[in-house]
Amino acid sequence: MKDTQGHHLILGELVDFITGETIQDTHDERYRQKLARILVEHKGYLKKEIEPGRGLLITVADKKAVITVDYTIKLAGKICIIIKYGPGSLVTRHRPALAASRLVAPYQVPVVVVTNGEDADILEGATGKVISIGLESIPAKAELIEQVTNIHFDPISAKQSEMESKIVYAFEVDGSCMCDDGTCRL
After folding, report:
1. Of 110, 108, 131, which is closest to residue 121 (Cα–Cα)?
2. Which of 24, 82, 120, 166 has its Cα between 20 and 30 A from that of 131?
3. Which pLDDT score, from 0 to 100, does residue 1 have?
């Protein structure tokens, strides 16, 4: 079964590895499912610690949109990693992913993963510095627990939230295709 909706080729349906729900099978979704399997089967996360497709409301002046954070990983009640997937270049996705890491929770998420499904850049949330490269370098659960032990999860100020919202809106919403399933203008 082949179908098209917007600019995504629908290849049929598949079962989401994390939720067990039936979803549309697209090339992008196949990469997301690959990432989910890596997180559970190779990195030691429990499915219940991973939230797929978290909607993030962005408000800039009188404009609103919801973008999707592909995966958030929560340990001990705190989001410790966000993963943003997108095809193509990774470096162009660093800044909007960092901005999302400052909006998805009332504190700075410590680890930000930007991936195209074949490669990944792992960023330190507070500084934006690339701390490792490659899907294999996504922190395993035990590693992440050790990394966040001494992190204070500093709150994000209202002013910084406003600035980060503008960045996300500019990168993820302005100029995006109206049929993009990762962005919804309200």
Report:
1. 131
2. 166
3. 39
